[in-house]
Amino acid sequence: MLRYVTTNEGKVREALDYLDDDVTQLDFDYTEVQASELGPIAAHGAREAYRYAGEPVLVDDAGLFIDGFEGFPGPYSAYVEDTLGVETVYRLAAAELDEPRRASFRCILAYCDGDPFEASPDPIDRDDRTVAAAHGAEQDAEETEALPVKLFEGVVNGRIIPPRGDGGFGYDPIFEHDGKTFAEMTASEKNGISHRGRALAKFATWYAER
Ligand SMILES: O=P(O)(O)OP(=O)(O)OP(=O)(O)OC[C@H]1O[C@@H](n2cnc3c(O)ncnc32)[C@H](O)[C@@H]1O
């Protein structure tokens, strides 16, 4: 059984289109480490979620990266949505940036099932590390960081525009791609081109072969 780790219902709805019925949501709020990119955040989350669940997990970390703001809000997208709100992000972009106010949505999926993906690490190294590690929490943390994680990335380019549409979630109403905002698209239209859809398609192909 694969657990799709997120507290966000919108992500789950989209992900289930790409994944089999034996995938269920794990509503687990993993620690989001501070980083300027999504990869390390998702990888850390997948390791922590796997330690928690004891089953294969897929973590989805995503964000809106505005070019003229050097990628802001990026990894802080959820925090900025909760504090400023999506409309304020649009107003800031409109006040500060010239058209076309380019931006991208990015999604990283991090998969962890406790098994290595390529050649297994030298067992002697592994034993050494275990012996050298301190007891208790420190040892747990070290073992967690040693868990192998596989990453899948999806990116879609667009621009920031005044909010339009009622569909989707999060920043969808202010992100336009090919003349439509993500909030004006049907779920399958969005999935067909979105950052999450692209990452999920890569993951699904790899997972089917695993
Ligand atoms: O961490 P989890 O529990 O998965 O849920 P979250 O909503 O906090 O997820 P993130 O940390 O990945 O934050 C992503 C932010 O970017 C937004 N976001 C992610 N994917 C999006 C999408 O497809 N369309 C619009 N906004 C999106 C989302 O609303 C959040 O504000």
UniProtKB/TrEMBL annotation:
InterPro entries referenced in this protein's UniProt entry, alphabetically: ITPase-like_fam (IPR029001), RdgB/HAM1 (IPR002637)
One GO molecular-function entry: nucleoside triphosphate diphosphatase activity
Q: Where is the signal peptide?
A: none
Supply one GO BP term.
nucleoside triphosphate catabolic process
- Superkingdom per UniProt: Archaea
Please provide the record's keywords in A-Z order. Hydrolase
State the GO CC annotations. Answer: cytoplasm
The record's comment on protein family reads: Belongs to the HAM1 NTPase family.
Q: Read off the PANTHER family from this record.
A: INOSINE TRIPHOSPHATE PYROPHOSPHATASE, INOSINE TRIPHOSPHATE PYROPHOSPHATASE/HAM1 PROTEIN
Specify the protein name. Non-canonical purine NTP pyrophosphatase
The source organism is Haloferax profundi
